[in-house]
Write a structure and sequence with these properties.
By secondary structure, this protein is an alpha/beta fold. The protein is built from 22 helices and 23 strands. The chain has a 6-stranded mixed sheet with strand order 10-14-15-13-12-11. Strands 2-4-5-7-6 form a 5-stranded mixed sheet. A 5-stranded mixed sheet has the order 16-8-9-18-17.
Length: 666
């Protein structure tokens, strides 16, 4: 077989195997639960799946899976003929083999060796359980009796290609909005009509591409049924898992990110939430416990709840755990229950591969926050965990605010309310400036101060806009301006800024400027740590003179993003597109305090720019920071030789490192 064709077939097989393993788990669970008289249909379904896997493995030259599939067919034939009983031991072997098949797929996808794969160790057990009965004729008869289908086979497209299409579509929409804002569409009746047609087509295209990313919620929860079954078996509990809202379509990236958090919640519900069968019967409950996973559309978000009908959470156990760890015990019972999301918190008597609930809940909380979402818990007759995340990660409804001449955005779902506040509305509670909201004191903090920006005394102008954010607790942030609420395309920060804690993403605004998406959990945490006094907020602080940075990079994306970061930190930024342009700007703009330059640029690179600066009597003492992807010792040595004050490698630093370096050299 041609090597290129073999690679294509192997890739198709890996993708196909993942779907077949999910089907096998689903069909095995149905078979295990079915009475003996109703096992014919799930047996038939398993036959079809295994036979398909065997043929695909043969075509893709994966003999280990081909041979294992053949033995599984032997097992199925024995079960259909009554020679093999559907015993717990046999099902454990089936499930273990299914996991081993999934492991082979993961190894093939990552290029790892198959020599030590668990499937090889299972083959003797499969052969012993199946005996020597051959099944090829039976399978052939089954296939001949299967009704013909006229459905069109699915077209497999890599997720990365869909993401790229969506990004390009988003850029097109932004460009159209910029044209609208500039008034260029008003160039006559014909031109205005063409512009409307282009905008309509672009919106329709964007909607179609978005739908390509959406998959039913049930596809992201297929692994939960098996997980509940395995934990129930290991803890001697009878479990029913119910999925509600399986048809709701959610962004594939969101479901992928929720996979492990939901697994934690379901496993914990079975292990911690549900009682043993005898306890349930004694309490007047059915012996079988139920865990329900529900997906509900809430505006632009999806609310996923995991509910069990178990014993609920014991507040006294939480108090005892908090006291043992020397932590404060909240008086409000709702806040007390939320303490279970603290890192390392657990009320389990012993940590096992199933227990250790605190570790899992901390992971769930972090995962929800990384998705720009939140998690909550309600305890009573049973326990309900509620995870609220965006329906899609590609777009976001945001509130734009102006602070110190810059534009920042908050996810609109985190905005509790917008207010206008004057000095007379501020009260001191235990020395902290607060405003009253629904009869409760909420800390009041200038957003400029949290971001390290210079701020004046905004309250001297009268009432000022305030944004109240909610994330577990509430904080009120003073801003200079409320700009607008809009839907935006979310962009990643890239390697240079990915480590930033206060910024979670970026977006290109219709004005052409980059808006930084602020991380709500980090902003709320900083606000609660840095709450000021009434006097400091009302009086404000004098704005320090802004230092001037000459930023030089030939990438427009990098320039725009770094410019926003530097301006957000209080610097005045002058931008050059390459070394030659930067040298011209340096001579035309007196008072430059530091140069931040890329290295690989046309006309004059960063090394050459630094040499030119050092040879100039006027600029020889000007600090220069080189920011580059060139990471070899020879490159670093050259940066030192030409006189750079700092040499930062793009893959090794975050936003704060750049800002700290500027502080050190100026």
């Amino acid at each position: 077989m041609d090597d290129a064709l073999a690679d294509v077939l192997r890739g198709l097989f890996i993708a196909e195997l993942e779907e077949h393993v999910a089907s096998m788990n689903r069909e095995l669970l149905a078979l295990e639960r079915a009475p003996a008289a109703d096992q014919a249909e799930p047996l038939q379904a398993l036959f079809r799946t295994i036979h398909t896997v065997k043929g695909a493995a043969r075509a893709a030259s994966v003999p280990s899976i081909e041979h294992a599939s053949h033995k599984l067919e032997d097992l199925l034939t024995g079960m259909r003929s009554g020679r093999l009983a559907a015993s717990p031991h046999l099902f454990e072997l089936w499930f273990a083999t299914t996991d081993a098949l999934a492991d082979i797929g993961e190894r093939l996808a990552s290029g790892r060796s198959l020599e030590d794969a668990p499937l090889h160790a299972l083959m003797p057990r499969l052969a012993l359980a199946a005996g020597s009965e051959e099944v090829a004729p039976a399978v052939a008869d089954t296939e001949e009796r299967a009704p013909a289908t006229t459905s069109v086979p699915p077209l497999r497209v890599a997720a990365e290609k869909v993401d790229e299409l969506l990004a390009r579509s988003g850029e097109l929409l932004v460009a159209i909005r910029r044209l609208d804002a500039s008034g260029l569409h008003d160039a006559g009746q014909s031109g205005t009509s063409d512009a409307r047609a282009i905008a309509t087509a672009a919106l329709a295209l964007d909607e179609v591409i978005r739908r390509l990313r959406m998959i039913p919620f049930r596809e992201g929860t297929a692994h939960l049924d098996r997980a509940a079954r395995d934990v129930g078996a290991s803890t001697s509990k009878d479990i029913a898992l119910v999925i509600v809202g399986g048809d709701l379509e959610v962004d594939r990236a969101v479901l992928d990110a929720l996979r492990d958090p939901l697994l934690h919640l379901v496993r914990n519900a079975v292990d911690h939430g549900l009682e043993a069968p005898w306890e349930r019967v004694s309490a007047g409950k059915p012996a079988r416990g139920t865990v329900t996973v529900t997906a509900t559309l809430c505006g632009a978000d999806v609310l996923v709840t995991v509910t069990d009908d178990g014993r609920g959470i014991d507040p006294d156990m939480i108090r005892a755990q908090l006291r043992r760890r020397g932590l404060p015990v909240p008086e409000d019972e709702r806040d007390l229950v939320r303490s279970i999301f603290s890192p390392g918190f657990s009320t389990a008597a012993m940590i096992t591969d199933v227990s250790g609930r605190g570790v899992g809940l901390d992971v769930v909380r972090k995962a929800a926050e990384e998705l720009r979402g939140s998690i909550d818990v309600t305890a009573g007759q049973g326990t309900t965990f509620s995870v609220r995340v965006p329906l899609t990660l590609s777009t976001l409804r945001v509130l734009e605010v102006g602070v110190a001449g810059n534009t920042y955005v908050f996810p609109a779902s985190a905005v509790r309310i917008l207010l206008r506040v004057g000095a007379e509305d501020i009260r001191s509670v235990r020395g902290v400036a607060t405003i009253a909201l629904d009869g409760r004191p909420v800390p009041l903090v200038p957003l400029a101060g949290l971001l390290g920006l210079p701020s004046s005394s905004p309250l001297a102008r009268g009432k000022v806009p305030v944004v109240v954010l909610s994330h577990g607790s509430e904080v009120a942030l003073v801003v200079d301006e409320l700009v607008s609420e809009r839907e935006v395309m979310v962009k990643g920060l890239g390697p240079r800024l990915r480590g930033s804690k206060v910024v979670s993403g970026a977006t290109l605004l219709p004005s052409g400027r980059v808006g930084l998406i602020l991380d709500v959990p980090e902003v709320v945490a900083r606000a609660r740590r840095g709450s000021g006094t009434v006097g400091s907020i009302v009086a404000g602080q004098d704005a320090a003179p802004k230092r001037r940075v000459l930023l030089c990079d030939d990438s427009i994306t990098t320039r725009s993003l770094e410019k926003s970061i530097l301006e957000g930190a209080g610097y005045t930024v002058i931008v050059g597109v390459d070394g030659a342009d930067a040298w011209r700007l340096l001579q035309e703009n007196p008072g430059i305090d530091v140069v931040v330059s890329d290295v690989e640029m046309p006309r004059m690179n960063g090394f050459q720019l630094t040499e030119t600066i050092r040879e100039s009597p006027r600029f020889r003492h000007l600090p220069v920071i080189l920011v580059t992807g060139l990471a070899t010792p020879a490159d670093r040595a050259r940066g030192l030789a030409v006189g750079a004050n700092a040499y930062l490698v793009k893959s090794d630093f975050d936003q704060q490192q750049l800002l700290d370096t500027i502080e050190q050299v100026t």
